[in-house]
């Protein structure tokens, strides 16, 4: 699209991996936010977004990228906590 701004952020529970919140801004944000609302409404976890198949290339694919990032951050925190 050529935009140089925009963001999709997921808030995930580290205890049970449930999706707790979604922040989206930028072009077509209103076309994206409903995906997170649906997962949250069903009590879904970040695992659902990691395993879901998104069309490529689409903006919706950013959910998979954000979910993988969240999983990596949770692994890092768990590893650092275990080392203490």
What percentage of the residues does DSSP assign to strands (E)? 15-25%
Runs with pLDDT <50, length 5+?
none
- Rg (CA only): 14 Å
Broad shape: globular
Helix content: 40-55%
Tell me the series of helices and strands, N- to C-terminal: EEHHH
Query: How far apart lie the N and C ends?
Result: 45 Å
What can you see in these coordinates?
There is one protein chain. With 84 residues, this protein is α+β, with helices and mostly antiparallel strands. The protein has helices at residues 33-41, 46-51, 62-83, and strands spanning 7-12, 19-25. It has a two-stranded antiparallel sheet. The relative contact order is 0.17.
Write the topology of this structure.
Layout: E1 7-12, E2 19-25, H1 33-41, H2 46-51, H3 62-83
Antiparallel strand pairs: 1-2
TL;DR of this structure?
The chain is of the alpha+beta class and 84 residues long.
Comma- or semicolon-separated keywords:
alpha+beta; 44% helix; 84 residues; globular; 2 strands
């Amino acid at each position: 699209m050529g935009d140089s701004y925009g963001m999709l952020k997921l808030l995930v529970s580290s205890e049970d991996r449930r999706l707790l919140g979604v922040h989206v801004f930028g072009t077509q944000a209103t076309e994206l936010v409903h995906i997170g609302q649906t997962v949250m409404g069903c009590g879904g976890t970040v695992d659902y977004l990691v395993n879901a198949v998104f069309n490529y290339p689409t903006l919706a694919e950013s959910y998979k990228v954000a979910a993988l990032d969240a999983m990596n951050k949770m692994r890092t925190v768990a590893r650092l906590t275990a080392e203490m």
